[in-house]
Design goal:
Elements lengths: L16 H5 L15 E7 L5 E7 L1 H5 L3 E6 L24 E2 L5 E7 L2 H9 L2 E6 L6 H4 L15 E9 L2 H7 L2 E9 L11 E6 L5 E5 L4 H12 L6 E4 L15 H13 L3 E4 L2 H7 L6 E9 L5 E13 L5 H10 L10 E9 L13 H19 L3 H8 L18 H11 L2 H4 L7 E11 L9 E8 L6 E5 L8 H13 L6 E5 L16 H28 L6 E4 L2 E4 L2 E7 H10 L7 E7 L19 E12 L6 E13 L4 H20 L5 E2 L4 E2 L17 E8 L20 H13 L10 H15 L1
Parallel strand pairs: 1-12, 10-11, 14-15, 18-19, 25-28
Antiparallel strand pairs: 1-5, 2-4, 2-6, 3-5, 7-15, 8-13, 9-10, 9-12, 13-14, 16-24, 17-18, 17-23, 20-21, 21-22, 24-25, 26-27
Length: 765
């Protein structure tokens, strides 16, 4: 589709690429403040224990120790990401609930002294029985992890759409299976960190590697028992988050608290073991699924029962099972669905938001189930998916409003790229292809505070443009795309653009980076702010050119009359004209974007539209399995992605490839190894935690499907996060196509494949 754009849709280099290439980007690790202290956190050695006493006297006497805080001294204020799910203290107060739980924090003159100090703190515990399996945790008599709840199910959802029993009665083929998606770590290259400062006015300033500065301000103010206005959060350059840097952590609270206690800046940097153990992980999930189809492949009913292992605390508990439920209803038309979701406490590290949050687990089960049904019915898996694919403006059982949908095109193009019809079931043993599909929201609209603001300031001396946005760029290039959107609307080149972002004191309110809503929310806000600034300029320039404001064109650093490009002014001359017009205010544009929503969150108990827009994607994988060793090699992944409109094709491709890398790693390598006797992670380091490397990376074929969503900025919607969802599924389906072994528990290890092959041989014999 042709567009007459000069900035968006172009492969514009990122604004931050030069600084990062030269090593000038300031990450939290790089920051040093005068008189700065260093902090360490004492952590629980037990998965479940009551804290009887804490003695810090020996640590206090250690030379170089300047401050200590324990849970006994802090306000009893719980916090969390999702309303009505707050269950975590900044430091453990009464008891610890997993190995690694935060007990006390120390600030000292250097890291070694801080480390020695925490070893001198004596904690007396009463060890309690623990439970590590979510299906065991819900049984009568299981140890209660949060006694005040009265059970270990912290959140549940029950959804019924249509008539499920009648749907199964109409089915010609029915399957019931159990699937398991393992826990995986986000593994950002940059570990979590924070620096806290407390000044004479009583204000806290915290630099934190966070994805949600404004949410963090709220939670930090709550745990410190001070007004929001006394807390300032600044996000420096962040080296990856993927959802793991959403929550408030002990390092943020302790940095602020100890800065006030000592009168000096305090810095905390987690080590890699702490990142693995004491932050967040993708929820391991048990999924029971029953699916039914007709002979022609029409999906007539599904019943899904989910147990999400949340670990010791809630984090995003209600949201993960809600997402799981609502994205069983999409990308296919399923008129009859029953979904039972349970978020379960265990004495393990905490589950939280991760790329595709809660959806890869259920889609792995669903996409596997559909392939198995297709085989039972003698159908082509591609044809089955095309038969049930959603379409734009189709009435939806869950009351979604889908204004743009490129799912059919994504499936067709992915299959075409793989030569599906020519190669499916025709490749030699050990070689296989598979397909899967999914969808993802462009942000959420189920809470009223999910919005974004933007301010455009135009410098009068050189015409440069500063965009102030609260959006948090965590490496995905959000600032660059927002600058492109504003530049296109203003008609200026990227050389004039500057971005100031993610400082709660300077930038307007923004919800942060989660749910793939940054481009949609902050992008629309940036465009509205740019349009507001442009309107102010047009009012002056129109008089000068003897034209109407609506007849002016802003493009490539010029303002001219539509149809008469020679009758106009340069951008700088236009700005000077505004300056000389002696207007009472300089040019400052303002914009705020907020979709229709209901407060408080209602989707746990009511149906409704989840997002202002949905992206759709289909992926095909080609794999090679060594029949002797069981080792799987992913050769090629074709990713068809409906992103509405690619604002920057280079960045979209980078996001798609990153998601494929993450999804492929989770399919065949990544797995948090538990010691099931105590819930401890055995491979909390990069040496033992297997991940996809550049040497393992498959060829990725990106296919961008353009649908131009009417609500997105210049037609854009989610690009990248949703792409991770179908990867493990299509690889699993490809493995089955290659060797006839159906893997129901991720990851797909050589041991599982060899066991399956042995069972095949035994069955044949």
């Amino acid at each position: 589709m042709e567009h007459d754009y000069s900035v968006v849709g172009k492969r514009v280099p990122r604004l931050d690429s030069y600084g990062k290439s030269l090593g000038q980007a300031q990450y939290i690790q790089d920051m040093v403040l005068p008189r700065m202290l260093h902090g360490r956190i004492l952590r629980s050695p037990f998965p479940h224990a009551r804290i009887l006493s804490i003695d810090t006297s020996r640590a206090e006497k250690l030379p170089g120790v300047k401050g200590i805080v324990t849970g006994q001294e802090i306000p009893r204020r719980t916090y969390g990401i999702v309303p009505k799910a707050h269950d975590e203290y900044a430091l453990a107060i009464d008891k610890v609930r997993y190995i690694g739980d935060d007990v006390a924090a120390v600030a000292a003159v250097d890291e070694d002294t801080a480390e020695e100090a925490i070893s001198l703190i004596k904690v007396e515990y009463e060890v309690l029985p623990a439970v590590f399996d979510p299906e065991e945790a819900i049984k009568p008599g299981a140890p209660l992890i949060h006694e005040e709840i009265g059970e270990n199910i912290s959140a549940r959802i029950l959804k019924n759409f249509g008539d499920v029993d009648q749907g199964f009665a109409e089915a010609d083929f029915i399957r019931e299976d159990r699937f398991y998606h393992q826990a995986v770590n986000h593994a950002p290259l940059e570990p979590h960190g924070a620096i806290g400062v407390y000044d004479a006015s009583g204000k806290f300033t915290v630099w934190s590697s966070t994805q949600i500065p404004f949410f963090m301000r709220r939670n930090l103010a709550k745990t410190l028992e001070v007004p929001d206005s006394q807390v300032r959060i600044i996000k420096p350059t962040v080296g990856g988050g993927f959802g793991q840097k959403l929550d408030l952590f002990a390092k943020d609270f302790a940095a602020a608290w100890l800065a006030r206690q000592t009168g000096r800046p305090v810095k905390f940097i987690y080590n890699r073991e702490e990142v693995f153990t004491c932050t967040r992980q993708r929820h391991p999930m048990v999924v029971y699924i029953k699916s039914g189809i007709k002979k022609d492949g029409t999906i007539v009913a599904q019943h899904c029962r989910v147990y999400a292992d949340g670990g010791a605390y809630n984090s995003t508990a209600p949201l993960i099972i809600t997402l799981s439920a609502y994205f069983m209803m999409i990308p296919y038309m399923i008129r009859n669905l029953r979904f039972e979701g349970h978020h379960v406490y265990t004495n393990k590290p905490v589950g939280g938001a991760m790329r595709g949050h809660g959806i890869p687990q259920v889609r792995f089960a669903c996409e596997s189930s559909l392939d198995m049904l297709a085989e039972d019915a003698g159908l082509d898996p591609v044809d089955l998916r095309l038969k049930n694919a959603l379409r734009a403006n189709e009435e939806h059982p869950a009351k979604y409003k889908i204004y743009s949908c490129g799912l059919t095109e994504a499936i067709e193009e992915a299959a075409k790229s793989m030569a599906w019809k020519e190669r499916w079931r025709k490749l030699p043993k050990g070689r296989g292809i598979g397909i899967a599909a999914s969808a993802y929201p462009s942000g959420l609209n189920n809470m009223s505070h999910i919005g974004a603001g933007a301010i455009i300031k135009i410098q009068q001396d050189d015409g440069s443009v500063t965009l102030l946005t609260g959006a948090a760029d965590i490496g995905q290039g959000a600032e660059n795309v927002l600058a492109q959107i504003a530049a296109e609307e203003l008609g200026v080149t990227m050389e004039l653009m500057r971005v100031t972002a993610a400082d709660t004191e300077l930038t307007p309110l923004d919800s942060g980076t989660f749910g793939s809503g940054v481009t949609f929310r902050a992008g629309n806000a940036a465009r509205l702010a740019a349009a507001d600034a442009k309107r102010q300029i047009a009012e002056v320039v129109a008089d000068k050119l003897e034209a109407r404001p609506e007849d002016l064109v802003f493009r490539e650093n010029r303002v001219f009359i539509k149809g008469s490009p020679d009758r106009g002014l340069s951008w700088n001359d236009a700005i000077k004209a505004v300056q000389y017009a002696d207007r009472p205010m300089p040019v400052v544009g303002r914009g705020f974007y907020h979709v229709d929503s209901v407060e408080p969150t209602t989707l746990l108990k009511e149906e409704g539209n989840f997002s202002p827009a949905y992206s759709f994607m289909a992926q095909g994988a080609e794999v090679e399995v060594d029949m002797e060793t069981g080792e799987t090699r992913v050769i090629r992944v074709t990713a068809g992605h409906d992103c509405g409109f690619a604002l920057n094709p280079t960045q979209v491709e980078g996001q798609l490839e990153g998601s494929v890398a993450g999804g492929a790693g989770q399919a065949i390598y990544e797995d948090i190894g538990w010691d099931w006797s105590n819930g401890c992670i055995r491979n909390a380091n990069f040496a033992d935690y297997k991940m996809l490397t550049s040497l393992d990376m498959p060829e990725v074929v990106n296919i961008e499907i353009e649908t131009n969503d009417p609500n997105g900025p210049f037609g854009a919607k989610e690009a990248g996060e949703g792409t991770i969802i179908p990867t493990a599924s299509c690889i699993s389906n490809a493995v089955y196509n290659a060797v006839g072994v159906r893997i129901r528990e991720l990851p797909i290890t050589p041991e599982k494949i060899l066991k399956g092959l042995e069972e095949q041989t035994a069955g044949a014999g």
